[in-house]
Design brief:
mainly beta, disordered N terminus, five-stranded antiparallel β-sheet, 1 helix, about 0% helix
């Protein structure tokens, strides 16, 4: 039945298959993995570069923080927004409207003011994004609005990209793949600029007018989440590649974006939490409830703030990212907001007056403090920016730093099969740990669902590594066309056989659903 496929995919990769591998219909012969190549190194442990800690806005900080949180420095700057942290500095912008704004940098270790960049008297100065030694801020001022790239070391501007913004404010610009993406336009839309020189690449005007949002970037595509649904856009032209209509009601300020991970988009509407499969362009699952803000996602779990009217307190609800099964709640005592921060062992969330740290596994509260606002986490230092009081409070985690590797797999969406060409996807293995990982195996399983169990079939073991701290290795995975694959998943298990001691030994990543 698979003679043609066997001819096309006879190439093998990795070591010889051990006896326990049980390929069905010689499936291992028509699954091909290209050679591993170095990807962009991760800085998630030592920086918080933007809202959600990266262009995919996952809210994930890859470390464990089991110890006590001890007060560190405090500094007064004035009312501010979401902070960015990188290169030993904390970057803050003034929360203002129709008044002069600023971008300030303070020392990450001491809180000492390093420099101030004053923005002109304008409608708004939005929160910052750090990338490649520069800070990006959007300053709204009608038809003369500016996107500014500021040198992070001295606070001097490199270039400005003029565009149009009405009276709206936006979340931090999204910087990825040599491009800067942000909301704007008098009647709604999205801009794209070249990162190196600020040249405007496109304006896409086919979006409704809302403020307090920003695009997300994932696997070579720009995504927008609006009360009209999810849109996937070309990063060079802004053109709509595909969309899924999900109508929901909201006020002009939606104050959220979409979190992207492992071939799925996770988004909150006015009454539901959605998981959208980026391979099939369909809703994988949704949960009804009073959700708010941007969800966070890591290691197969999605976390969403819920303010259900029938429950006495706000809470963060955790769901299996692949099937939507409810896992448990982290319960606060007042109105929670913004986006949770999730680590490998904790869930951190705040209100405007209090911040909570919960144990991720037990759902129990570990710690709280009577200080709330916008949360950022880098180098085991939690920074809380108070929106009204104008103060940054910081807390250090007192636990001894972990020294193990932590290998995490991440899939990009499947590309559709065209003619006789195989469908393909990219897979990445990143070492988020604090120690280099020796060479090991990655197991690829064929499964009828997104959970690894004894009924799944190990198709291939692929050798990978060594992988340094923060390093990422990427490969292409190609599969042929067969009824055996329809509606199946490939599950990636880093360090198959547990040869490498890791901070998290349960990292299993399913691909998107394989469609004909």
């Amino acid at each position: 039945m698979l003679a043609a496929l066997l001819t096309a995919f006879v190439a093998q990769s990795g070591p010889a298959l051990p006896p326990q591998v049980r390929p069905i219909d010689d499936a291992s012969r028509w699954l091909r993995v290209t050679p591993w190549q170095a990807g962009t190194a991760s800085t998630l442990r030592n920086s918080w570069t933007t809202y959600g800690n990266g262009p995919a806005h996952t809210g994930y900080y890859p470390d464990v923080v089991p110890g006590t949180w001890m007060p560190s420095w405090t500094t007064e700057l004035g009312p501010m927004q979401q902070l960015a942290i990188a290169d030993g500095r904390v970057y803050a912008t003034r929360l203002t409207y129709s008044e002069p704004g600023w971008l300030k940098a303070v020392d990450e270790s001491t809180g000492a003011l390093l420099w101030t960049f004053p923005s002109p008297s304008i409608y708004s100065t939005n929160s910052p994004t750090f990338d490649d030694g520069h800070v990006f801020i959007q300053c709204g001022n009608g038809s003369s609005s500016q996107l500014l790239r500021i040198r992070a070391d001295v606070g001097l501007p490199n270039w400005s990209g003029t565009h149009t913004v009405g009276f709206e404010r936006y979340l931090a610009p999204t910087v990825a793949n040599g491009r800067v993406f942000l909301g704007g336009g008098f009647t709604g839309g999205m801009y794209g600029f070249r990162q190196s020189d600020g040249e405007q690449l496109f304006f896409y005007g086919g979006l409704p007018l809302y403020d307090l949002w920003t695009p997300s970037f994932y696997a070579g595509t720009v995504y927008t989440w609006m009360p009209s649904g999810l849109g996937a856009h070309d990063p060079e032209t802004g053109a709509l590649r595909w969309s899924i209509g999900i109508d929901w009601n909201w006020s002009p300020s939606i104050n959220r974006t979409v979190a992207m991970a492992n071939g799925r988009a996770f988004a909150i509407s006015s009454d539901r939490l959605y998981a959208i499969d980026l391979s099939t362009h369909t809703v994988a699952w949704s949960v009804f409830g009073g959700f708010d803000g941007t969800p966070a996602v890591s290691n197969g779990v999605v976390f969403a703030i819920a303010d259900d009217v029938d429950e006495p307190f706000d809470r963060v609800k955790a769901y299996d990212a692949w099937n939507g099964h409810f896992l448990g709640s982290y319960i606060g005592t007042e109105f929670l907001w913004n986006q949770p921060i999730v680590t490998d062992d904790a869930v951190i969330v705040g209100s405007q007056i209090r911040t909570y740290v919960f144990d991720r596994a037990t759902f129990q509260q570990r710690w709280s403090i009577l200080a709330g606002g916008y949360l950022s986490l880098a180098n085991r230092r939690l920074c809380i920016a108070t929106a009204g009081g104008g103060r940054i409070r910081t807390y250090r985690n007192g636990a001894s730093p972990t020294s193990d590797p932590n290998l995490v797999a991440e899939w990009e969406p499947w590309t559709p099969a065209v003619g006789t060409a195989p469908r393909s996807a990219r897979i990445a293995i990143t070492n988020y740990g604090a120690q280099s990982s020796p060479a090991c195996h990655v197991g690829l399983y064929l499964s009828g669902d997104t959970a690894l169990d004894v009924g799944d079939t190990l198709l291939r073991l692929v050798t990978i590594g060594p992988i340094g701290i923060g390093e990422k290795l990427e490969a292409g995975v190609l599969i042929g066309t067969s009824p055996l694959l329809t509606d199946q998943y490939l599950l990636a298990v880093p360090d198959q056989g547990a040869a490498v001691p890791e901070t998290n030994e349960n990292n299993v990543a399913p691909s998107g659903r394989i469609i004909p």
